[in-house]
Amino acid sequence: MRETSAKELWQKLEEKYMTKSLENRIYLKKKLFRFVCRQGISMTEYLNDFNKIIADLMNIDVKIDNDDKAFLLNPLLDSYDHFAHTLINEKTEVKYDIVSAALMDNGYRKKDKQAHRDSSFDALTIRGR
């Protein structure tokens, strides 16, 4: 509250919340390696949460290779298991951008399929009367 410039305020916030201490590095790395997809969240939310952890690590100068980011997306729900094998099969290189875009597309298709299934179920119920 006492800072008068944005630069000074940013530096204070960085010192307080983004320390580059060993303890903070270990905490964020554990958070990344234990990160799994929770049941009931969208793929958009999952990728946003994942990217936030990656950004926090980058802010404290922890470098994560693009290929490693793609493989860290591995702990998805069982419903994505077939998708992951299909995506990685016969690839010599797995890139994070390709994997995350494919996951988003797959998530949208699943959502549309579920919405279509729900609406067709309602139509069948109405006809049954």
TrEMBL record:
This is Uncharacterized protein. It comes from Persea americana (Avocado).
